[in-house]
Design a protein that fits this description.
With 220 residues, the chain is an all-alpha fold. It contains 7 helices and no strands.
């Protein structure tokens, strides 16, 4: 491939933008949870405002990939690597959207004249999802497929907690802890957290594919 030095420099720029997007996504998710727990509408609005920056960075990454393909006509592993970057970026953008969903619940609870009270299962889901997101940031930067595989496996725990959480919320509803309006935001918050962990597993799959050119299931 011609101009290999220039190509490698532009790959480094692309990776830097992916790392920046990962950092913004982690910030967005953290803020959405703090806004919800603290009934902080100003912080919730910051999450919603940050989404525009994330969307713009996602579009920038997509354009960088298209330009790389057009200029250098990469083949084999190089082509797979940069195309996978688009999928990686799109998964991150979806996590940003889900963080916005969580932040939006801050306003919904205000309309209900309630302060969000997250149960033990939801707090476990949040803690584990945040841990997975931080670790996938490290796995990406270190190109660590062993770590990516371990993160991927943790999604099963989130799924089990989400199912248990639904049962507990319905039981609490029957016992009068929630009314008909307030039960819905709690169910949706847990669903959004579970979907964030799903997106993290997608990121893990992309990390393995970038490095090995194979599906993650081969290593499970």
């Amino acid at each position: 491939m011609k101009n290999i030095h220039h190509f490698e420099n532009e790959i480094l720029i692309l990776k830097a933008d992916i790392s920046k997007m990962l950092s913004l996504i982690l910030e967005s998710f953290n803020m959405s949870i703090k806004a919800l727990e603290g009934n902080n509408k100003m912080l919730a609005k910051r999450v919603l405002d940050l989404d525009d920056k994330i969307d713009n960075l996602n579009r920038k990454i997509e354009e960088e990939v298209y330009q790389l393909i057009a200029r250098y006509n990469p083949l084999a592993k190089e082509l797979r690597y940069i195309i996978t970057m688009i999928k990686f970026s799109n998964n991150l953008e979806r996590i940003g959207d889900l963080s916005c969903n969580i932040a939006q619940k801050t306003f919904e609870f205000e309309e209900l004249n309630e302060h969000a009270k997250l149960n033990e299962n939801m707090l476990k889901m949040i803690g584990l999802s945040l841990e997975m997101l931080k670790e996938v940031f490290r796995a990406f930067n270190e190109r660590n497929i062993e770590l990516a595989i371990e993160i991927w496996k943790k999604d099963n725990i989130i799924d089990e907690l989400e199912i248990e959480n639904r049962k507990n919320i319905l039981e609490d509803f029957k016992n009068g802890k929630y009314d008909e309006r307030s039960i819905i935001p709690y169910v949706l918050i847990a669903r959004d957290i579970e979907r964030i962990s799903d997106q993290v597993t997608n990121l893990c799959e992309e990390i393995v594919y970038i490095e090995k050119g194979e599906e993650i299931l081969k290593y499970i």
